[in-house]
From TrEMBL:
Methylesterase. Pfam families: Abhydrolase_6 (PF12697). This is Methylesterase. It is an enzyme of class 3 (hydrolase). GO terms for molecular function: methyl indole-3-acetate esterase activity; methyl jasmonate esterase activity; methyl salicylate esterase activity; protein methylesterase activity. The keyword Transferase does not apply.
């Protein structure tokens, strides 16, 4: 692909405030239907999350296991960016229609419920995965010590794809490290890699290093942090990490709806620490030839816009998008804006 240039032209930077007013009664009806459908989706997701939390098991350490929720096809969510006449033409122009959505630290496949619905309504094929020790994956997070172990469900999914099939890989937050790992291993299977306020690291960098501005150096964090979990005993190295609820609300969800915050508080699980501290080995011959795209969240308190811009400068993607008014979870705070960007990237030749 040669040298990459950050695409900062107006047409390449997508900024959506999400507060667009309706211009007609038809739009009002469409928006009311969208809100009603979204409410129905959320009630189902929240109900499943509560049920899973009630039957959750215990970790060897002091943290309770929190199981996220996923559900199959849920209702119909209107796509505000395409109508019935546009969808067939849009689909005909795409050679790759399958999106693999990879969650970030503490989350699970459940966090993509709005994105799944909107992509399916647009005629695309979203697939989610629970990384090891996350969501419905019953691996004890305390036992996950490497990025290879953490990414195993994703790697198995890609390995089992039909020989000629490619996918668009989407990673959120530290899920970006898993996307990079997969891109290094299977560049021929990944059509495009999309990093959403994610750890798009360079060769030899740790996912944790990206958060150093907010959390301090890895060495200091390991010595002083009150959020560490010692699943193998206090006399052994820390195995995981879990923020307090109030801390998570301030870092991750400063623009997200209350109902999605409630879902997250029930569903989030401890983060395996080993994969966060592992240095990635990324080659120019494999990872470097992948098509990468970055989505920056402009009201993000977990990974500041300045840090995200630094990632883009140091590891230039093919194109660079922005979402105005989004916190660290655009799939909650700005789902329509995120959906439109995913469609735009899918259509890039």
């Amino acid at each position: 692909m040669g040298n990459r240039v950050i695409c900062m032209k107006k047409k390449d930077v997508v900024i959506r405030s999400g507060g667009d007013g309706s211009r007609s009664k038809r739009v009002n009806r469409s928006q009311r239907k969208l809100l009603a459908d979204e409410e129905s989706l959320h009630r189902r997701a929240l109900s499943m999350a509560i049920h899973q939390a009630q039957v959750s098991q215990r970790f060897d350490g002091s943290m309770s296991r929190r199981i996220g929720s996923t559900s199959s096809r849920r209702g119909t969510l209107s796509d505000p960016f395409a109508n019935n006449k546009q969808v067939p033409e849009f689909l005909e122009s795409l050679t790759v229609k399958k999106f693999v959505l990879v969650h970030g630290e503490g989350f699970g496949a459940w966090c993509w419920y709005k994105t799944i619905a909107s992509l399916e309504e647009s005629g695309l094929s979203p697939v989610t995965v629970d990384l090891a020790g996350s969501g419905f994956n019953m691996t004890d997070a305390n036992s996950v010590s490497t990025l290879e172990e953490y990414s195993k469900p994703l790697i198995e999914l890609i390995q089992n794809l039909p020989e000629e099939e490619k996918v668009i890989l989407v990673g959120h937050s530290t899920g970006g490290a898993c996307v990079s790992y997969a891109l290094e291993r299977f560049p021929e299977k990944i059509s495009k890699a999309i990093f959403i306020c994610a750890t798009m690291v360079t060769d030899g960098q740790r996912p944790f290093d990206v958060f150093a501005a907010e959390l301090g150096s890895a060495e200091r964090f390991m010595k002083e942090s009150q959020f560490l979990i010692y699943g193998n005993g206090k006399d052994k190295p820390a195995t995981g990490l879990m923020f307090e609820k109030q801390h998570m609300k301030g870092l991750y969800f400063n623009q997200s709806p209350n109902k999605d915050i409630a879902l997250s508080m029930i569903s989030m699980r401890p983060v395996p620490l080993g994969p966060m501290m592992e240095k990635l080995s990324l080659s120019a011959e494999r990872y470097g030839k992948g098509r990468r795209f970055y989505v920056q969240t402009l009201d993000d308190l977990a990974l500041s816009p300045d840090v995200q811009e630094k990632l883009v400068r140091e590891n230039s993607p093919e194109a660079f998008f922005k979402i105005k008014g989004s916190d660290h979870c655009p799939f909650f705070s700005k789902p329509q804006s995120l959906h439109k960007i995913l469609l735009e990237i899918a259509q890039i030749p």
